[in-house]
């Protein structure tokens, strides 16, 4: 909301506020059933005293437009037009609750909103900082695009042909042999997961995955009545010795894994573990989703070859994306899979959104074909490595004795465990008040209440410095007062 | 498949083909369970005699890689690696069948594939022809974009702020008063429908809609176990006198309508019918999805104001899109709705694909802000009108006495009913052989077997001329031979 009362006007502030709210209600922007922001939030938004807000709300309650409840919440219960209508207007809140798709976890809803607040320091964000995104080179790409014939129509079901050819070339370097007909272009790897969930699995299916995992942070599978079954990890990744037991115990249909620079732990699965994983899944006939979106972001050595590069039995559905290494805003990723799978997923994608943005697809193809993508990634590796080093140094300075963590060899994340007693919700709230946004571990594993996902990708150097030292202060404060 | 055998090589053609297929199988591109193309299709693809293909396939069957069935279909049943594996590889075909999302209707799958065949005349396609898409002006937009600061990160949950502001301005001209917080940017109107289906309705819900309707051509609601209940139309659109009865009889949760230049009938709902519709829905407390993607494409007079422009009770969820008037490849549309609804849908969109392409969003904002969009639409109206006129003239020349149709005052479509007896599948196949792609009416209403959706939007003038006269020939041929 951008509106503020006019402080120079002769109309009293509370009347201006009352009129503003009445207007929002009568336009249907705040439909009947809407819970309006708290008095405190409104006072902040409008830059007025809380008592001014209270006066406005009291009037609106008296007029029968709003209703307060004992918990201090206020709801729209009527609008000026209703009095004329024969029956009550739709109760949108009940519609919102009826939908089958799960809402985001409250912590994530909070984070999604807060991320766009100005000045906030984002210590957990899974995204490169804006200054690492190649805005200048993107202009070159625009220039190249404007020199080429350009079609603006719907694209082929599997995605722009030229982009798929570029992806084939790119994958060849990773020792994945495939062809354009085995590739589906998606609007980010997340959409690939969504399509797999709706296209390949029945309701009630079980999916094995690392615990903790990124996949717990979205409801792609759960919203289709599927179950996520977490398998414990060790320093090398998912414990392959447990898979056979879990597969049988839960009648699992798929295994989801992030072998390279796991989100949130940063873990890199070594060659030997990859071989074991492929063997046990081949023995069990258990297909794999390999989520490889962080692969390019290695610091000293490239990670071992993807699982998909050693997949004679076509066990692996492979996911890649430009989001982490180039630009999340492009919304371009890919699925590599056997042809009947790709055809099924492409058919659903046509019913979802008729394909990804052709602008983005052509820009992506241009990045890959021109070699600018590889150049860019080389630079990003260096930058990220420097930010990782700084972050580790800061942790060593401020967190020694109150937390433990491991050292990632690529990707965005450090998974740190607080070894002192700190209620995470309290830490999150205090940090938020101090202008720091955190990603609590419980987002990625309900039982990881003492963990935090720290990301060195988004925050600037000085933000990392200030933020991590401030965070350590908060941890110490809270843990002392808790004793 | 781009591969062709090397006709100058000393290796016999059937061996080359055998090697090619073996390779595809062992790479997992044709995984176990894949139904491979028919002998005839392979012969065409490879440019060889069918007997050459048969030799190759026979060898592969003898080696245990393929299996034929009595209907002439051939399936991959094994691969060279399997013999080593402890258990059989995943049967991807059974995965494909297990998924909950409905596949496209076979006719649509066929159309989706055939649309990208070179030289085919598309008489039913719901898309502007490439020469009506503003490729040149798009270059100007690229130039403007490359002169501006450009962020490549994930966008806000509701979509790029600046674009939402432009949409607010744009909607003001349609007498829809709203604000950026009541708008969600989506990857086309289709995605808006998908989000509504998953976000606002329980499994088992019923949706009223015009019969026929575009909505029957996708499985957005049915895949969530919802039912579409068709309400008959007359020349003014959905028959409002029936709504109350249908609502009660089916306990309907929503009504979906395309009041302006309905797909597939071309029907324009006049002012009086709009008022009746709003009245009956207000009386019944029945919310409406207003799909207004064709609004801009009027020929003589603009259509009456949207339902959303007269919506004091916040009954209407409004859908708009740039696909039909500017570029489908942009994949940009919008939902306008009460705030709790928009927040719910935005939250799901974040779990679907983390928002639409920021490239597309910024390009869309630029189109709207610069005024180029309105200029472009003015031109499109003229072009389309000319194509409509030509098409009507052609129908009058060739279809008089064998079909009836109505005259659309905007949009893309003429809904024609064949008055002679013609099995539609046969007509579709014959037309396809002659290089013409049709959209049979049954896609939009199972009982509309004698209808065709003719679109004058995609085919070029000379294609319309040749295509429609050829189509009339085919209709006459088939109907005579049927007698
Ligand atoms: C492991 C993993 N997979 C997929 C995604 C989604 O990425 P995209 O932007 O390609 O949808 C993310 C982003 O957070 C991720 O961490
Ligand atoms: C009535 C109607 N609504 C929605 C759509 C989908 O359009 P978009 O490209 O905006 O998703 C179409 C396209 O065929 C349509 O005809």
How is the secondary structure organized here?
Two copies of one chain form a homodimer.
Chain A: H1 13-26, E1 35-36, H2 39-46, H3 50-62, E2 66-68, E3 74-76, H4 92-98, H5 106-114, E4 121-122, H6 135-146, H7 161-173, E5 183-186, H8 189-200, E6 206-211, E7 227-234, E8 237-238, H9 240-250, E9 254-257, H10 271-284, E10 288-291, E11 316-321, E12 333-336, H11 339-352, H12 358-370, H13 372-398, E13 403-405, E14 413-418, H14 424-433, E15 436-437, E16 439-440, E17 451-455, H15 461-482
Parallel strand pairs in A: 4-15, 6-7, 6-9, 9-10, 10-11
Antiparallel strand pairs in A: 1-3, 2-3, 5-12, 7-8, 11-12, 13-14, 14-17, 16-17
Helix pairs in contact in A: 1-3, 2-3, 6-12, 7-12, 8-11, 9-10, 13-15, 14-15
The structure holds pyridoxal-5'-phosphate (PLP) (2 copies).
Radius of gyration of chain A: 25 Å
Largest beta sheet of chain A: what is the strand line-up?
Answer: 5-12-11-10-9-6-7-8
The helicity of chain A comes to 40-55%
Number of domains of chain A: 3
Query: What's the count of strands of chain A?
Result: 17
What is the CATH architecture assignment of the largest domain in chain A?
3-Layer(aba) Sandwich
What average pLDDT do the residues of chain A reach? 92
The bound ligands are: pyridoxal-5'-phosphate
What is the CATH third-level topology name of the largest domain in chain A? Aspartate Aminotransferase, domain 2
**Sheet with most strands of chain A:** 8 strands, mixed
How far is the first residue's CA from the last residue's CA of chain A?
42 Å
Chains forming the largest contact:
A-B, 118 and 118 residues
Report the oligomer: homodimer
Number of helices of chain A: 15
Low-confidence stretches of chain A: none
Tertiary shape of chain A: globular
